[in-house]
Amino acid sequence: MLPLQSTFRNLTSYCMNAFNNLNRNFHSSRLLQFQNTPALCAEPLRKKKRMDPQILRERAEKKIKRLQRDIRKLEKVSRQYKPISELDIPRKAVRDSERVRPASELTIDELKERADLKRLWAIYKRKQHLAEMSAIQRIVAAQERALDALQETSLELYEEAIQPDPTLIPFKMTGPVETPPIDNYDYPGGDYIDVTKIYQPIVPSDPQKQKKLGLHKKK
Fold first, then answer.
1. Confidence (pLDDT) at 117
2. Using CB atoms within 10 A of its CB, is residue 19 exposed (0-12), middle (13-18) or buried (19+)?
3. Is the dihedral of CA 39, 41, 42, 46 positive or negative?
């Protein structure tokens, strides 16, 4: 027994020294015999690579531009209004080729008549423009002559005359509307028909399906 004990003792000391050199935790027990924990060797840290500050700045600017572009896209989507079915053109009407009106073919006489009308209209508008410009020039010249005469007569009145009129500034004007009002117009009466669409969920008639969907009435 003594040689066996000495051999076992030597083997134990050899194993202990070997595992201690490997930086492992070693333990033994009577039932599980010899066990060792897995090797926990840490990986050496990688050296952090230094980058050019200009490259980092460009990357940050690209990221900011990308975010701004996404924000603009979201803003465009948020401004979209809910479509109104009464104002939308049906797709069937758009695809229907029978609704397309053919171009009317004009005769030679009609083309000549239209060309003559365009030429006469251009001549009329030119004469009207020249008459308006000459009238404006006469008014401005008369105003300048009156101011010169007033300046020679009284300098105080001249200073008052060249002051802007506060009643003309700011200038406001209401233009013609689409349909002018009609005096004593009798509006026709009519019935109002509500065509608002109402969407209701489809409820199955089978009680079992209603129970699965949670639509059955609880007692």
1. 95
2. middle
3. negative
Q: How far apart are CA 25 and CA 16, in angstroms?
A: 10
Q: What is the pLDDT of residues 98-129, one digit of tens each?
A: 667 778 888 999 999 999 999 999 999 999 99
Q: Does the predicted TM-score (pTM) go above 0.90?
A: no
**Position with higher pLDDT, 158 vs 199:** 158
